Amino acid sequence: MFWSKKWHQSLAVALSTTLVLSACSSGSGGNESKPSAGASESTNVDSSSKAPTEKKVIVVDPGGDFTDYAPTTSMEKSDANPHPYNEIRVLADEWEKLHPEAKIEILSPTKSKDRKVAVAQLAAGTAADIIYQIGTFKDEDYPKGWVLPFDKYLDMPNPYAEGNAKWKDLYNESWLNRSGDGQVYYIPIDAVPIGIIYNKELFAKAGIDKPPVTYTEFFDAQQKLKGIGIASYMPIYRWSDITLETAVFANKIKEWDVLTPNGIVDQEEFVRAYKKGLYQVDSPENREYYKLKKEKADGYPNGWNSIDAYKAFVTGKVAMIEAVGIHMRNVQDDKERKFEYGTMPFPILLQEESAYGGANTIRGTAGYATAWQLTNSAAKKGTADLAADFLMYLTTPKNNARLVNNLQAAIPAANGAEAVEMFKPMYDQFQQDYKDGYLTWGAFYAAVLGGSEYGQAYEKLSVDYLLGSISLDKLLVELEKSMKKSVDGIVQQHKYDESKW
Amino acid sequence: MGYIKRLYQARLYYLFLLPTLAILLIFGFYPPLSALYHAFTNWNGATAEWIGLQNFKYMLEDSFLIDSVWNMLFLLIAGLITGNAMSLLGAAFVFNLKNSGMSAFFRYMFILPMVVPGVVVLLLWKSLMDPLTGLFNTVLASLGLPHEYGWLGDPAMALSSIVLIGFPWVAGLGFLIYLAGFQSISQEVIEAAKVEGAVGVSRFLRIDLPLVTGQIKLMIVLGIIGGLQGFGVQLVLTKGGPGSATAVPGWLMYEQAFSYSNFGYASMIGFVIFIVILAITFINMKFIKADQ
Amino acid sequence: MKGLSRRFPAGQLGLHLVLWILLLLTVYPFISMIFKSFKNFNQDTHNPWGITLPFHFENYTLAWETVRPFMLNTVIVTAAATLGIVILSSISGFVLARFKFPLRETIFYIIISLMMIPGILSLIPLFILIRDLRLIDSSWGLIGPYIAGGVPFGIFLMRGFMEKLPGELFEAAYIDGASIFQSFMRIAVPLSRPIITTLVILNILNTWNDIILPSIVLTDDAKKTVAVGLLTFTSQYNEQVGPLFAGYIITSLPLLLFFIVASRQFITGMTSGAVKL
């Protein structure tokens, strides 16, 4: 009518082509739960079904700290799809058979990993029943009732684990981070193997004959590498800094860990220590910490904030990278890598090296990593008990191993679960250190204990300091400002009973 | 009551506007108004207590926020230049091509990049600028030049690296708008200029350019509105880093909301940004109108 | 134009040269994106910038399998939103352009001021609103906000364009007894074809690639859009660059197609003199 024929035609052609293409595809159904490689039949879960059904639907958002547990689009192994995975769907199907009154829907890809999505969903009550969030966020979320405590479930026996009296026996008590109110708001799915991967060839070239164990040896190695013009170290996460901080404050931890003596300073204990002046931002320990950090950072390549560490390592441009399980897996898998590599744990601080040395954190793993939580959605839908039961099923030593080991990226969290070959040395080192009385992972970590506001300020300011943009004095002054504000916020939110202090 | 009568007589017009106003009211006005209310509370996503101007006070004490304004201004001004100068020139070049086949070819080629989502372009540039494995440093090294630049990871270079993204800054919406502007210059004007002896660069400066000032103004206004609040680069590439070298107010607002759950505070920041945008655009428009 | 070239052939050569250089510089990142879309992880790690053989076409297969179910949704949402924006903008632009009535300027400026609100400010309240309206997981939860987002600029363009339409045409129509609506449909709209196309293209570009709104509004797999579907390649730690870029190329193709087909009208719309201040 009002359009010229030609325009009308071309518009119609373009639109119809796209529609035809998508119409061909929509026949396969929009709600694709990826078909499991197992023999299970219940593959298509229709969660949006409004048809009258008695089944309770449990929605699972299976993210993970280093690798997601969501089923991959396809189970065909290929270069584009090197780690096909659907073990979680297989496990879910098995559980459904035992619980015909419920259905499990697994989101793929995981959405809650994106914090803004998670926040929006939790605020609106539309999140998945079981959701993955980085562990630190639960301390912000639980006061708002966004996540549910597991304590009552942890005291129950896990019916799927042989000989289990209480679910919590499957975990190391001191490793389960209790939130400010003393409750446990998550179930750990895996523990992450950590350490440093190093390039044996570059080490040899630089004249380093054995992997450094102490900080002195470590700095020495860095100097040697600098001597041959190679960047010595790239952090991916800043975890070796956590162990350094814990080491430097090790002696003080006993002083602060009084409210719930368990080897870990929790948030309330930290706030108490701060308010009583026992912990000060500008303290000799902290200065030592930053001094050591800076010395280490001098070996980082220029522009390290923007470097892809894994790629740089595997192409021989940097000699050591701080790595976790998944990097180790990828380095192992890389057939084009032209050098031999080795792994070693983080360096430790000896008493001889520093006034504050002598006690160090367990090496090999960083404790529990992937934290799955029960959300307010489960409470609203009345599926909390069933969801917790499903989690019990997933976390028996045997099933936890099945869930995690397939991806070769982490160690299953449940006690007694076997780790994959590649991580056994890490696991063994950790066992050894545990016996030798090393400090628990995260026994003290100010950036978390001080609240998220302090944590973020710390991230920015410490990087500014390492890059030389601000001086140590200014750093400590600014950190103190943030700490004060952040702690005030925590106190306001938690309303501690200070008389107990 | 003549006013009421006029309103009544215009009722048909209001009727036509009704659907638009309804949708705008619900999805367009309500959310920011709600955010405005929450700017005066300590909303954390679950509870909100009125705290008056407390958030505004925090803003004045927030040294990160104040420092970020300088970064934002740098990016804004640099962005206005890169976003307009090269696309203007590029459009002028294409406009002056005699060969209509080549002209059409270049026109398409410089518009096509608009089809690619912004995220992709950012990710590409990030890997181009990777200090160890990126193309730039690798090429510099192979040419024997200094090649240890930190680009986005170097606090001294980070902001400039952000500006660099999109080099040579020709393709995109600006190119399109300017080319269209040139093409709408009537032939008569061009012929008349030729008669006066104004051709080539001279003609460009005295005829073409003045005739596209309308387009330039539009691009500048849009650029200012976007630049004052933008944080896409920070979100995808730098997270405000290294340290706080590339933080801008829009990014800090996002962080406050989604990393610290300080939605009340974030709303106050957003509200202040809005007022600033409003004020500057208002001044801008007055400036433009005065010109006309 | 011809006269110019006869007088300055050297100038033309120079122009061509400069334009080719600019074009290559512009296009290089996209070409490397195409190369990368054929690489597997190892190729991308060890040879990120060159062409690597063999080409891994399975990246495209994987990417297509990932986004295929979402194509229809994306088309529906984009089409509905764009249609809504065009219809509302043209009617409102028309009324605001050609008739005088009380509060006309006020209404116009209030609508325009919406463009200045930082998007992130509205995000959470918008989301809570969508939930309260029970539009979670509904395409309308996306379409409504998209329309509200695109209408202000749309009205700006349409009003600008329609203001310039010659009054005589309308006069004649009204004398013949045409209603407002008829004058709109029979005169204003046909003449506005170029600017409408401009609006259509700009909005399709914006809506098709948007990630933020669909991420938080849609939890049901069935309703997802392609932009969200592609996030699966970035959500695993292992950024699978190959399928990711392959996916972006695939999802850009319909846009490209539409763009090429409608570009003539688009250019006319841009040159109509309405896209400026």
Overview of the molecule:
The complex is a heterotrimer of chains A (501), B (292) and C (277). With 501 residues, chain A is an alpha+beta fold. Chain A has 2 domains: 56-185 and 371-409, D-Maltodextrin-Binding Protein, domain 2 (3-Layer(aba) Sandwich), CATH 3.40.190.10; 192-365 and 441-500, Periplasmic binding protein-like II (D-Maltodextrin-Binding Protein, domain 2, 3-Layer(aba) Sandwich), CATH 3.40.190.10. Chain A has 20 helices and 12 strands. In chain A, strands 1, 2, 3, 4, 5 and 11 form a 6-stranded mixed beta sheet that branches. In chain A, strands 6, 7, 8, 9, 10 and 12 form a 6-stranded mixed beta sheet that branches. In chain A, helix 2 links the parallel strand 1 and strand 2. Chain A is globular, with a radius of gyration of 25 Å. The model of chain A is unreliable at 1-51 (pLDDT under 50). Chain B is mainly α and 292 residues long. Chain B has helices at residues 2-9, 11-38, 54-61, 63-95, 100-111, 118-128, 135-142, 158-164, 173-183, 187-196, 200-211, 213-229, 232-238, 249-258, 263-291. In chain B, helix 3 (54-61) packs across helix 15 (263-291). The longest helix of chain B has 33 residues, at 63-95. With 277 residues, chain C is mainly alpha-helical. Chain C is built from 14 helices and no strands. The longest helix of chain C is centred in the first third of the chain and has 41 residues, at 58-98. The two termini of chain C are 28 Å apart. Mean pLDDT of chain C is 83; it is low at 1-5. Classes of the chains: A alpha+beta (501), B mainly alpha (292), C mainly alpha (277). Chains A and C meet through helix 1, helix 3 and helix 12 of A and helix 3, helix 4, helix 6, helix 9 and helix 11 of C.
